[in-house]
Fold:
Amino acid sequence: MTTATPAALTVPEASGTAPAVPDQDLTLVALTVEEAARRLSIGRTTMYALIRDGEIPTVPIGRLRRVPAEVLAEYLRRLMNSVANHHIAS
Structure:
């Protein structure tokens, strides 16, 4: 008797691309702190520090605080510009 291997247990072949994160919904416009941290590949504590320091703005939605998805791209652009300006000044 043969048994089939469940798809969840199979290992995909290396394709040179990052694996898809199944629980990441790229259509969300307002993220939890944890979702925002996951998108930047940083820890939750680091994300809270960035929020506390004003680097990442949040918005209130009812009793919740959310991170607008667009501010993550803006934050990365600011980081890239600061790195580029640092190299020019050196």
Summary: The longest strand covers residues 64-68. Residues 28-89 form one domain. The helical segments are 33-40, 44-52, 69-89.
